[in-house]
Amino acid sequence: MFELNFQSRLPIYEQLYRSVARMAALGVLEKGDPLPSVRALAQKLGVNPNTVQKAYAILERDGLINTVPGKGSFLSGDLSALEKRRELAAGKLRDAAEAALECGMTKEEILSAAADVCDKGGSVK
């Protein structure tokens, strides 16, 4: 369910954040779905509970999850943070395509490179 790459330069808490955001964007997690407890997820993934807590805190700050004391954390209905991330990603994609064109890549080469990423599932680096 949660994807982590311990070889990545991306911090574990950021990988957890992205994993939850991706599951929400894809509809794997829906509004009101519970997330595992901090302790349970940390134990399952073999990471420090503080790392999971940091990811959950950032998810809550961004409005992706709500935490109810004594009940747990749940996916929020407000997915505006996901929309902001999508807009940012679209901007980065446009910038990358422009840079590729400036380097002499053809439209077909650019689309092929993007298709390769999509075919691999956009794994976390």
What's the SSE blueprint?
Blueprint: H1 12-26, H2 38-45, H3 49-61, E1 65-68, E2 72-75, H4 80-102, H5 107-119
Antiparallel strand pairs: 1-2
Helix pairs in contact: 1-3, 2-3
Could you characterize what this model shows?
The chain has 125 residues and is mainly α. Helix 2 (38-45) packs across helix 3 (49-61). A hairpin with a 3-residue loop joins strand 1 (65-68) and strand 2. It has two domains: 12-78, Winged helix-like DNA-binding domain superfamily/Winged helix DNA-binding domain (Arc Repressor Mutant, subunit A); 81-119. It has a two-stranded antiparallel sheet. It has helices at residues 12-26, 38-45, 49-61, 80-102, 107-119, and strands at 65-68, 72-75.
Features:
Arc Repressor Mutant, subunit A; 2 strands; two-stranded antiparallel sheet; mainly alpha; 125 residues
Short note summarizing the structure:
With 125 residues, the chain is mainly alpha-helical. 58% of the residues lie in helices and 6% in strands.
What is the terminal separation in angstroms?
Answer: 17 Å
Number of domains: 2
| Structural class category | mainly alpha
Radius of gyration, in angstroms, nearest whole number: 17 Å
- The residue-averaged pLDDT reads 89
Per DSSP E runs of 2 or more residues, the count of β-strands stands at: 2
| Poorly predicted residue ranges | none
Q: What amount of the residues lies in strands? A: 5-15%
| Tally of helical runs | 5
Quick one: CATH superfamily of the largest domain? Winged helix-like DNA-binding domain superfamily/Winged helix DNA-binding domain
The best one-word shape is elongated
Multimeric state of these chains? single chain
Question: Major sheet, described briefly?
Answer: 2 strands, antiparallel
CATH topology value of the largest domain = Arc Repressor Mutant, subunit A
CATH architecture of the largest domain: Orthogonal Bundle
**CATH uppermost class of the largest domain:** Mainly Alpha
Order of strands, main sheet, comes to 1-2
Helix content: 55-70%
Order of helices and strands: HHHEEHH
